[in-house]
């Protein structure tokens, strides 16, 4: 029930274009996990065989505080009824992820791994509380004025072979 409420609040926040207040009934990390779930709904992955054959793996950094709330998404249907699988991020197996969620603690090795991947790799990269911008990071989550906000880099998504919905781009904070 708590996950359902979290997802509904996250969807409401995305559809209304307002950031949710961090002091709301839902904890900040649970709300960020709901955002990650909803981002999947607003991204188009390439239809090529290598990407299409992957399951809906969300790979999360072992250092990320989002590990626990993202684990609550395990088994939930993502797109086309395929269930989400949540795994710890292993840079050696990064190509098996559809979504990679990382934190400042592992940014350097993650960026090196992404830079070595071919264009069109089909991995959505989401950073939580990043302190700097990178051309490989597609979505950044952060807290601003007591609200959860996100930025989207359409160029990073394009480089990975992903297409970001114009609705999601309109909701993203300016300047990303």
Summarize the structure.
With 176 residues, this protein is α/β, with parallel strands linked by helices. The chain has helices at 2-16, 28-41, 49-52, 67-71, 107-115, 154-159, 166-171, and strands at residues 43-44, 56-60, 84-88, 99-103, 124-128, 139-144, 147-152, 163-164.
Give your account of this protein's structure.
By secondary structure, the chain is of the alpha/beta class. It is 34% helix and 20% strand. It contains seven helices and eight strands. The protein has helices spanning 2-16, 28-41, 49-52, 67-71, 107-115, 154-159, 166-171; strands at residues 43-44, 56-60, 84-88, 99-103, 124-128, 139-144, 147-152, 163-164. The protein has a six-stranded mixed sheet with strand order 3-2-4-5-6-7. Strand 6 and strand 7 form a beta hairpin. Helix 1 packs across helix 2 (28-41). The longest helix has 15 residues, at 2-16. It is globular, with a radius of gyration of 15 Å.
């Amino acid at each position: 029930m708590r996950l359902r409420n979290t997802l509904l609040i996250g969807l409401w926040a995305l559809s209304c274009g307002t950031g949710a207040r961090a002091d709301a009934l839902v904890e900040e990390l649970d709300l960020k996990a709901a955002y990650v779930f909803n981002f999947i709904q607003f991204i188009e992955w390439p239809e090529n065989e290598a990407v299409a054959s992957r399951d809906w793996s969300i790979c999360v950094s072992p250092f990320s505080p989002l590990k626990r709330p993202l684990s609550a998404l395990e088994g939930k249907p993502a797109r086309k009824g395929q269930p989400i699988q949540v795994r710890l991020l292993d840079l050696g197996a990064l190509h098996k992820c559809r979504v990679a969620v990382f934190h400042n603690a592992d940014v350097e090795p993650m960026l090196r791994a992404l830079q070595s991947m071919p264009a069109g790799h089909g991995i959505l990269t989401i950073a939580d509380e990043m302190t700097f911008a990178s051309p490989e990071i597609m979505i950044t989550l952060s807290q601003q004025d007591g609200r959860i906000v996100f930025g989207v880099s359409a160029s990073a998504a394009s480089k990975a072979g992903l297409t970001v919905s114009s609705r999601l781009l309109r909701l993203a904070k300016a300047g990303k």
